[in-house]
Write the C-alpha cells for this entry.
Amino acid sequence: MNTAEHMIERYGELMTYEQLAGVLKRSESGLRVTMARRTSSAAQVLDNARIRIGRRVYFRTHQIAELIDNS
C-alpha cells in the first residue's frame, strides 16, 4: 500500500486543516501562516491542493501524499 492509498483510506479524498496539520506535525495556525506567505515550494503545492466548498477549506489527499513522497 503506497502513501496515497493509506492516506485516502484514513482521511478520505479531502482533508481538513486540522488533519493536514496533524500529518505535517504543525499547528493549524502555523500551517495557515505558511499558506499565507507562499514563499516556499511546499506552500505553493499546498495552495494547489486547496479546494473551497462554501466557506470551508479542504485539501486533496492525493496531492498531499505526493508532497510527502517527494520531500
User: Anything to note?
Assistant: The chain has one domain: 3-70. The first strand starts at residue 14 and ends at 15. Residues 3-70 form one domain.
